[in-house]
Amino acid sequence: TRRVRTRDLIAAKSRGDRWPMLTSYDQYTASIFDQNGVPVLLVGDSAANNVFGHETTLPITVDELIPLVRAVVRATKTALIVADLPFGSYEEGPTQALRTAVRFMKEGGAHAVKLEGGRRVAAQVEALVGAGIPVMGHVGFTPQSEHTIGGYRVQGRDNQGAEVLADARAVAEAGAFAVVLEMVPGEVAKTITKELEIPTVGIGAGPDTDAQVLVWQDMAGLRTGRTPRFVKQYADLAGALSQATQQFAAEVRGGEFPSAEHTF
Ligand code: KIV
Ligand code: NA
């Protein structure tokens, strides 16, 4: 087996094959996803929320994210590993974006990077692709801009679909190999998917994108409480882990653990 390449994903689109993508931030989940049919893993800046406990994705730094990328790369054999460029690490322009992306490729061992924005980051995308770094775009709702957007809001409603299409087209024309469409109406995502030759990766974008991505803790039910409408939970890891924790705690308190079989 060999690593998935960006051209495999473009070929999948021309065959009409859909593919799944998940976030991962550590070796065990990375290895499980890699061995169970997920060809692309994203070390997302959503680690800010899902690993480090921040309210938004804005605080995470390049120095915090690179070690997670390295762990995920080391734990996988076939998945293509995409690293997110954190807020503040590429907005200044192509030079800053290239300096940051090179760190993710060199120190993190990533196979591609992802950055948020459409027309406004086309120059950055072009510079990275020109330097040999595959880029995944991310348009529609872009969490790093949530203070401008005014919270988690669907983008491209009420005849604004053309704006999202223009952003997706801009990153595609700048050389991106795929583009995430986050929280856009299904019809808008369907149109963009038809218009572009590169694969679209939906999250809250309906059933007609070429790929689907979820944050793994959402997919596996590790996060509790209110989850966005676009999330489907395929397991109850929070329930399983709570149960295991209660039993371990009770058995320690009751003197049942460790028993003879666990004792040297
Ligand atoms: O950081 C992240 O988790 C993401 C995806 C949900 C697309 O950017
Ligand atoms: Na992200």
UniProtKB/TrEMBL annotation:
<comment type="similarity">
    <text>Belongs to the PanB family.</text>
</comment>
<keyword id="KW-0808">Transferase</keyword>
<keyword id="KW-0963">Cytoplasm</keyword>
<comment type="function">
    <text>Catalyzes the reversible reaction in which hydroxymethyl group from 5,10-methylenetetrahydrofolate is transferred onto alpha-ketoisovalerate to form ketopantoate.</text>
</comment>
<comment type="pathway">
    <text>Cofactor biosynthesis; (R)-pantothenate biosynthesis; (R)-pantoate from 3-methyl-2-oxobutanoate: step 1/2.</text>
</comment>
<feature type="binding site">
    <location>
        <position position="84"/>
    </location>
    <ligand>
        <name>3-methyl-2-oxobutanoate</name>
    </ligand>
</feature>
<keyword id="KW-0479">Metal-binding</keyword>
<feature type="active site" description="Proton acceptor">
    <location>
        <position position="182"/>
    </location>
</feature>
<feature type="binding site">
    <location>
        <begin position="45"/>
        <end position="46"/>
    </location>
    <ligand>
        <name>3-methyl-2-oxobutanoate</name>
    </ligand>
</feature>
<dbReference type="InterPro" id="IPR015813">
    <property type="entry name" value="Pyrv/PenolPyrv_kinase-like_dom"/>
</dbReference>
<dbReference type="Pfam" id="PF02548">
    <property type="entry name" value="Pantoate_transf"/>
</dbReference>
<keyword id="KW-0566">Pantothenate biosynthesis</keyword>
<dbReference type="InterPro" id="IPR003700">
    <property type="entry name" value="Pantoate_hydroxy_MeTrfase"/>
</dbReference>
<feature type="binding site">
    <location>
        <position position="45"/>
    </location>
    <ligand>
        <name>Mg(2+)</name>
    </ligand>
</feature>
<feature type="binding site">
    <location>
        <position position="84"/>
    </location>
    <ligand>
        <name>Mg(2+)</name>
    </ligand>
</feature>
<feature type="binding site">
    <location>
        <position position="116"/>
    </location>
    <ligand>
        <name>Mg(2+)</name>
    </ligand>
</feature>
<keyword id="KW-0460">Magnesium</keyword>
<feature type="binding site">
    <location>
        <position position="114"/>
    </location>
    <ligand>
        <name>3-methyl-2-oxobutanoate</name>
    </ligand>
</feature>
<comment type="subunit">
    <text>Homodecamer; pentamer of dimers.</text>
</comment>
<dbReference type="InterPro" id="IPR040442">
    <property type="entry name" value="Pyrv_kinase-like_dom_sf"/>
</dbReference>
<protein>
    <recommendedName>
        <fullName>3-methyl-2-oxobutanoate hydroxymethyltransferase</fullName>
        <ecNumber>2.1.2.11</ecNumber>
    </recommendedName>
</protein>
<dbReference type="GO" id="GO:0003864">
    <property type="term" value="F:3-methyl-2-oxobutanoate hydroxymethyltransferase activity"/>
</dbReference>
